[in-house]
Design goal:
The chain is α/β, with parallel strands linked by helices and about 260 residues long. The chain contains six helices and eleven strands. The chain has a nine-stranded mixed β-sheet with strand order 2-1-3-4-11-10-9-6-7. A two-stranded antiparallel ribbon has the order 5-8. α4 links the parallel β3 and β4. It is globular.
Length: about 260
């Protein structure tokens, strides 16, 4: 067999293997959506500046997604939230006992009940909780309905050591995960998160600590609002997997749909 023919065959095999691994179609959205990232404070081990940039960069790879960023959580009430199709919570009031103002609580809940979308990232599920060190007075019970699985410092919430693990696509038919394949990431694998709402995981991973497949992402509703919660997203490296970036983009469109 001639050398150039052999090279063509191997080239075709290589292209097919790459396609099978990524299995992510190019974005093709006719509509434009706009989101607001809420950030500005966090647990000291969660570099919110880096993760906010990583989230922003992942979303902006689809030119149909417009993104604003605020580092003042009280802009929940200062901004006109109806201008946004979705919010992203990348914030935790670690050691900030004053919590969220009543005006911002009302603006946040009204936005969601009326059909606004929300994406909750990683340890944002520890915000405004009675077990939060140095911020016990910030407890907001309604947030436990908005955030279906929360980090409870009194309830045994924990995570595997930071490191590499495989994320399993647990639901292959949902709009957010359809056609995607399992992927490797570097992150903290959370487990023992508190909450009673039944969830159907979109993503799972095998915990070295518990020996169980732990849920890492799921969807649900709060009023008319649609919410995507993921426990992934510890630092900038945790957002490098192309599959996770695609999941975030798809989640933005999914939570933005009023159905």
């Amino acid at each position: 067999m001639k050398l150039n023919k052999i090279l063509k065959i191997f080239g075709a095999i290589f292209i097919l293997s790459i396609t099978a691994c990524t299995n992510m179609p190019e974005p093709n959205h006719s509509e434009t959506i706009k989101g607001l990232i809420l950030t500005g404070h966090h647990h000291p081990g969660h570099p919110w500046q880096e993760t906010t940039r990583a989230i922003h960069d992942a979303l902006k790879k689809d030119h149909s997604i417009l993104v604003d960023i605020t580092s003042n959580i009280e802009n929940l009430s200062a901004y006109k939230l109806s201008n946004y199709d979705f919010l992203i919570l990348n914030y935790c009031n670690w050691e900030l006992p004053e919590g969220l103002s009543d005006h911002s609580k009302e603006a946040f809940t009204s936005y969601l009940r009326n059909g606004g979308g929300l994406i909750i990232i990683h340890f944002a599920n520890g915000a405004w909780h009675y077990s939060l060190p140095g911020a016990e007075e910030s407890d907001w019970p309604e947030f436990r309905k908005i955030c279906s699985r929360m980090w409870d410092h009194e309830g045994g919430s924990a995570h595997d050591n930071y490191g590499e693990f495989e994320v399993i696509i647990n639901d292959t038919v949902h709009d957010i995960t359809e056609s995607l394949v399992s992927f490797k990431t570097i992150d903290e694998l959370y487990y023992n998160q508190a909450g009673d709402m039944r969830i159907k995981p979109l993503l799972t991973a095998l915990s070295k600590d518990t020996g169980k497949e732990e849920p890492l992402a799921w969807v649900y509703n709060y009023g008319k609002g649609k919410i995507f919660q993921t426990l992934l997203g510890h630092d900038a490296a945790s957002f490098k997997a192309p599959e996770f970036q695609e999941i975030l983009r798809r989640a933005a469109f999914w939570v933005s749909k009023n159905e």
